[in-house]
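re: ur question from earlier - yeah i can do the single chain one, its not a big deal. heres the input i used so u can compare w yours
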Amino acid sequence: MSYAVTFIRSTMVCILCLPILNVKAHSQKLELHYDMRHTIDPKQNSKNFPTLYFEYFKTQDTDSSKHFINPGSFLLKIQSDFIGEKNNIGKFYMQVSQSFRCWEPKIYINLQYSGGLGITEPQREYSFYIKNTYSIGIAYPFKLYYTYMSSVLNYKYLPYNKPSHDLSYTLYWWQGLFNYKSEFCGYFSIWTTNKNLGDEFTKDMKGKRFSFIAEPQFWYNLGSTFSIGTKVNMFYHINTTEDVFEVYPTIAIRFKI
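and the output i got, formated as tokens:
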């Protein structure tokens, strides 16, 4: 099993690092959000905090007559939460994905990796890893009226002491409003995970835990590169195993090139 996992990881790294050919469109975004979750729910959150996002997105020429492997979209997303002592970085998360196809229909193979870590205050001994997650599946980009969308269904592998094998579904969307003066965009994702992770705390648990995350965003463009906006973070079984649906808005600025 370990050899198979190593092979899958190596294959994903190779394809995620495919050379960038025949670029059609790309964007880079740097966003600074002020998360107001303490104001919304002070019992569960000790303070509000800023979050810095960097996102690099690229679409490529996928004409099947040009190459045997035709890269589709590439996404790199990095998130840093300044929740530590004196507003130091207390949580870091990274996600990278690449899609490609070797056939005419515009249904893509999707490969994805994500992981990170967090520091807990004041008891730092409870600091944690956001487990490395490896995903493979299919992605289908499409347009619904004036909205650009992408539907992604993946098999997800999480290497806990007792590995979790699951399905996840994600829907991305983007729509320009008022002659593209404003934007409505974001995503939502659902998946399951083992309750029993193979450790002392969960050894007696059985079954799967359902999780949900969504980040709808609205931006008003003050120019071609600068925007102001908001994002609404929605969580279920993300920050806690309790059956609590959390909704935390932010106020934000964005620099885009």
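The helical segments are 2-16, 37-40. not sure if urs matches, ping me
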